[in-house]
Amino acid sequence: MVALGLWIGRGARSVADYMVGNRDLPWWVILFSIVATETSTVTFLSIPGFAYSRDMTWLQLPLGFLLGRFAVAVLLLPQYFKGSLYTAYEVLHKRFGGAAKQAASALFIVTRSLADGLRLFLSAIVLQEMTGIPLHWAVVAMGLATIVYTFFGGIRAVLWTDLVQFVIYIAGAVVAFGLILGRLPGGWGQLIEMGGAAGKLRLFDLGLDWSEPYGLWAGLLGGVFITLGSHGVDQLMVQRYLSARGLREARRALWVSGFVVVAQFALFLLIGVGLWCFYELYPPATAFERPDRVFARFILDNIPVGLLGLLLGAVFAAAMSTLSSSLNSCATAAANDFVFPARGESVSPARKLRVTRALTAVFGLVQIAVGIGGQWVRSSVVNSVLGIAAFTTGIVLGVFFLGIFTRRVGQRAALAGLATGLAGMSWVFFATALAWPWFALLGSAGTFVAGLAASVVWPRQSGGAPGAVTARPE
Asked: What's the CA gap between 474 and 471, in Å, rounded?
């Protein structure tokens, strides 16, 4: 992966190429990059672990993710093709001003660094199990490998390696599932029989429990707003759309990716049911510490040499696809939303490229530090990661809604809405038992209502259509 990333990204000579691939990447590469980016080792290991310990009700969330993609394509994608943008938050700059842009960008950078640092930690568990090295050195090894090709190649290297990584981890998942079925005396039929009898194949939970993250309504409604935030206003995904050849191709990549994601989650959950059946028949010598480790342990103990390499490659591919995307998007946001505006127009193109590469390395080191600290997280890592992500994306989504759907809200009211949403969600996150899929919906609604109310006190002074963006030269 490192060698491939360096070779693909060897021609990155400008900021436009490093950040958005000169806006000339095919839609199908972007499609698989979208899927690979949201499929970290958290997905590859924790989702089978979820089905192992519970059932398949996690699949209700991807149904919401699919619906949310169509909403993103209609409501938000057109905003990013009104001009030559590099980050999602430049839309807020044009509508509200630099302070709103920087506040939203800062929330993204902090959230992404925390969530993806935890993803790095989970990936390193496999390397630790495989080699026996201390966990912190496993985190450092994986982090540095990803930094290298992201540093030199930029978004073009990230997207093309994402495609290869997608093929590797899906192939690994299919092979693992086949081997699990082969170890069950009755194969697929026994999985259906045992899993069905134990309730492991349950897909829908129709109850309305606000503290349960895997109910139907949390999945559908919460999943839609999570996707509006994660795929609509998060730089990690928006940067991929900006690399497309136009709005039509970006929409196609986004729509199709939703169906791929649903199928992928179904596969990972079936793997988890298969693991439960296997360990019911062949109990492990020692009980598993946490569900996150079940699939990793099966891979290391039960996969023959050769195929074992493929499965380990799949785990590392899932990890590196997300981490490389995170480093590039954080560096792009920090450079365009903070560093370059502070330096003014005097920054030369060559220096811009050097600064962006340096920021890539800095964020890599930050995520390594978070990953080392991940061993002290007591809850399920998948819940921690998704909870952190949902915490702030809803707030930023609410600010975008203020810009798109209102005319009277100006910068002061928008910032008041953002601050109110942040305070409100901090209380919800730490003082209530509300399930994380509701965070994005509640955060966006609270920010929108608070900003609209604040506009009564601080109405917008200047005219202009909300959400309008004018072109600027590359």
From this structure: 9
- 41: domain CATH number is 1.20.1730.10
- Residue 127 tokens read as 């390397």
Q: Which domain holds residue 303?
A: 2-380
**260 in any annotated domain:** yes
Place of tokens 């093709």: 81
- Domains identified in the chain, total number: 1
Sign of CA dihedral 319, 324, 329, 334: positive
Q: How far apart are CA 241 and CA 237, in angstroms?
A: 7
CA-to-CA distance for 203 and 463, rounded, in angstroms? 50
Is residue 429 included in any domain, yes or no? no
Highest mean pLDDT among 89-103, 303-317, 339-353, 385-399: 89-103
Question: Cβ distance 474 to 84 under 8 Å?
Answer: yes
Query: Is residue 324 in some structural domain?
Result: yes
Q: Which of 88, 69, 114 is nearest to 399 (CA)?
A: 88
Task: Please check whether residue 463 lies inside any domain of the structure.
Answer: no
Query: Which of 75, 19, 66 shows the shortest CA–CA distance to 38?
Result: 66
Asked if 170 and 39 touch (Cβ cutoff 8 Å), the reply is no
**Residues 365-404: pLDDT tens digits?**
999 999 998 877 655 555 666 666 667 889 999 999 999 9
